[in-house]
Amino acid sequence: MSDGERKIPRQKRAAETVEIILEAAAQLLERSGLDGFTTNAVAERAGISIGTLYRYFPNKRVLMHALAERESDLHGAEMQRLLREGGAGLAPDRALVRAFVGAFQGRARARRIAMGIWFETTPAEALASRFDAVTQTLNQTQGTLEPISAFVLTRAMHGALRSAVLEGVDFLHDRAFEDELVSLSRAYLAQVRSRAAAQVSP
Amino acid sequence: MSDGERKIPRQKRAAETVEIILEAAAQLLERSGLDGFTTNAVAERAGISIGTLYRYFPNKRVLMHALAERESDLHGAEMQRLLREGGAGLAPDRALVRAFVGAFQGRARARRIAMGIWFETTPAEALASRFDAVTQTLNQTQGTLEPISAFVLTRAMHGALRSAVLEGVDFLHDRAFEDELVSLSRAYLAQVRSRAAAQVSP
Amino acid sequence: MSDGERKIPRQKRAAETVEIILEAAAQLLERSGLDGFTTNAVAERAGISIGTLYRYFPNKRVLMHALAERESDLHGAEMQRLLREGGAGLAPDRALVRAFVGAFQGRARARRIAMGIWFETTPAEALASRFDAVTQTLNQTQGTLEPISAFVLTRAMHGALRSAVLEGVDFLHDRAFEDELVSLSRAYLAQVRSRAAAQVSP
Amino acid sequence: MSDGERKIPRQKRAAETVEIILEAAAQLLERSGLDGFTTNAVAERAGISIGTLYRYFPNKRVLMHALAERESDLHGAEMQRLLREGGAGLAPDRALVRAFVGAFQGRARARRIAMGIWFETTPAEALASRFDAVTQTLNQTQGTLEPISAFVLTRAMHGALRSAVLEGVDFLHDRAFEDELVSLSRAYLAQVRSRAAAQVSP
DNA sequence: GATGAATGAGTGTTCATTCAT
DNA sequence: GATGAATGAACACTCATTCAT
Fold this sequence. Notes:
4 copies of one chain form a homotetramer. Chain A is mostly helical and 202 residues long. In chain A, 73% of the residues lie in helices and 0% in strands. Chain A has 2 domains: 1-58, Homeodomain-like (Arc Repressor Mutant, subunit A), CATH 1.10.10.60; 70-200, no CATH class. The termini of chain A are far apart. Mean pLDDT of chain A is 78; it is low at 1-8 and 196-202. Chains A and B meet through α8, α9, α11 and α12 of A and α7, α8, α10 and α11 of B. Chain A binds a DNA duplex (21 and 21 nucleotides) through α3 and α4.
C-alpha cells in the first residue's frame, strides 16, 4: 500500500495533465472546428474522464480561454525565445520579423478559431499586453519610441502577418515577403526618427 | 391602383425585415455576447416571430455569417463611400486612413465577436477580397504596386487600426494617430518606389 | 363582370380540387414518406395555396384520413367494379382473388404508410365495413355463410395478399400464386359446406 | 468484494433501463396515441431524464423502431415459446392457432400504431423473416411445403387473426373462431397434399 | 374565394456539469 | 483523486394553422 513514489511528481503530473488536455483541445479544434469542441469530446481525446477534466478546468469557458491563450499568436515566453534565438547574427528588425513569422506557424484552423475565442474572452485592456515583449525589444534596439509610434509599428507588422496567415497567402515564407516587412519597419522607423518628417499634408 | 406597385414594396419590405433582424442581432451581440445570441432571442428583440426569422435566414449559421459580414470592418460599399467622400480635398493616403478609421467605429463588442465568427465562417480565400477596393484605390493613386507591397501596406494599416479599436486605445480619433498612420504609409511607399531601398541587411 | 359560367361547375370544381389535393398528397407520401408529408408541401405540389388547402380540409388529420381511405386497399366502389368486371367469364372465387390482387396494385409505399395512418385514424368498428362488399358477393355466390366463416375467409385472403404486397414478393402476379389462393378459398368453402367437417381434434 | 461482479449487474441494469423505457413508450402510445408520443414524455413516464433516454436510443426513430419490434405481433422468441408451450398435447395446427391468438393479445391501440410504425420503418425484405419460426414449425409437422403454399397459409392465418384483433371482434377468444381457423388450415393443407387438387377452373 | 406571410407552441436533441461510487 | 452515468436546462428548428389583403 505504499504509494510513496506516487506523491513526488504531484505537481509535475498535474501540469502534464493540463498540457494533455490543452493539446487534445487544440487537435479537436483543428480537426472538427468549434462544433465538435465539447468538453466530453476533449476529455475522450485526452484519454481522461470528463470528471477529471473538470478537476483541472472548472468550466468550459476557462478551458477555452486557456486554449486561446496557448494557441493565440504571441505568447510572451515563446516570443521572447524567438526574439532571443532569432536575434543571433541578424539585424534587430529582421529578427523581429522572423519572430513574428515564427509565432504564426502551424495549426491554422485552430488558431483562427482560437483568435475568435480570444477576442470574445479577453478584455480589451489585456490585448495590449501581448505586445509588451516586442515593444521592450523595440525600445532597447531602436531608441525609445513614442508610445503611439511603437503601437503603430508593432500592430502594423502583426496585422500584415496575421492577414498573410489567415488569408493563406503562398508567399508567407518567401524572402521577398520578409524583405517587404523589413522595409516597412525600416522606412517607418527612419521617418519617425527624423522628426522633421512630421509635416504631413492636409 | 393596379397592383403593379405591389411587388416593389414587397421586396422593400423584405429588405427592411432583414435589416431589422440584423440590427436586433447586432444589438444582442453587443449587450449579451455570444451566449445570449439565440435565434429565439434575436427574433424577440426584432419584434418578429421565430418562424419569420427562419423565413429570411434558413439557419443560425447563415444569420451569423450575414451579421459578421455586416458588422465586420470593411464592407465594400461602405468603404467605397468613405473613400469617395473622405477623398474630397484630402491627400489620397490620408483619405485612406480616414476611411479605415471610419470603418472601425462603434459597437466594439459586437464587432469583436462578429470578427471571430467571420474567421470561423469565412474561407481563407474570401478574406482577401475585402481589400480589393482599397488596393484598387492604391493602384490608381500611387502607381501600380507589386502585389506583395500592396498586400503589406493594406494589411499593415488595417492591422494597426483594428488593434486600436479592439484594444480600445484612447488615441483612436487623435490627429497624432492619424498622422502616424499617414507617416507609415508614406514612408513605406517612398521606400517601395525607390527600388534602391531593396538592399536590406542579413 | 358576368361570372355566370363560373357558377355552374361549382361543385364539380370543388370535387376536382379535392382530387388534386389528394393526388398530390399520395404522390408526396410515395416519394418522400411521412417526413416530407407536410400541409405546406402538399399545397405546393397541388399547385394551390396553403390557405386554399385549408378551405377543403379543416386540418391535417382530416386530410390524412381522407388519403388513407383513398389509398387504403379496399374501396367499396373500386372493389365492386373489380368484382363485376373481373367476374365476366371467371369462376366466382377466382374473380374474387383477381379483385383482391387488383386492389393491391401500385404505389406500394404510399399504401404502406396510408395503412399505418388508417390504423391510427380509423375506429376498430369501422374497419370491418371495408369487407362488406366482398362479404355480400360471397353470400350471393356461395350460399349464405356463417358470419365467422365469412370473416375468416375474407380476412385470410386479404392477409395473404396484403403480405405479398408489403413483403414485395416476386410471385405476386404469378398464376401459381393465384391458383394457391383459389385453392385456399375452395378448400375452405368445401369444408365449411360439409358441416360434418366440424369435428376438429383437441 | 472484488468488482468482478460489477460488470454483469451493469449490463443487466442497462437492459432493465431499456425495458423500462420501452414499457413507458408502449403505455404512452396506448393512452395518448402518436401525438403524445414525444421523447420528453417517454423519458418522464419512464422516470428517467431525457439525457438518459438518449444514452440508450440515439434518436426517436430508433426508439420507435424498437418499440414497433416489441409491440408488433410476432416476436421470434415469444412465438417460439407459444409454439412450444402451446404444443403440449395439442394437434400441431391448433397449437399454431393458439400461438397466433396469444401473440395478438393486449394493448390493442399501441399495437395498432406500432404496426403502422413498423410498416413505415421496416424494409419489405425484413417483414418476411418474422414468419420464419412458424414456417419451420409447419415444415417439421406437415411435411415440407412449397414456399408459396407455406407463404399463403401463414399469411392467411396471420391476416385473419390480425383483422380480428384490429377490428375488435367479440369472438376473438371463442372456441368457434379457433375451430374455424383450424378448419381453414386443415382444409388447405389437405388440398395441397393431394396435388390432384391443382386443377382449378379458369 | 384565394393567397401566402406570419405565427409560435412544441419537438428532437445536445452538452456542460454533477456526484455517487 | 478518478470515473462516467445521469441530469435537465436550453437550443435550433419545424410546421400546422390563421387572417389581413
